[in-house]
User: What shape does this take?
Amino acid sequence: MGEELAIGGVFIPSLLLWGLVAFVLLLPLTWLLSVCGFYRFVWHRGLFDICLAVILWGGLAMLAAT
Assistant: This one.
């Protein structure tokens, strides 16, 4: 997980790429939760979305480390 990727001679941390993947996965997930009406049970939508993004990011990084 601690490696860096060289893209065009520029070193990019792997955690940054996993964060981008988590963000891309978060977009349809938040849309689905909104359509299903799940956000009616959430106290603070913005805070919930940030926590969901962190959980996705950590899960992807943990899967990549194994």
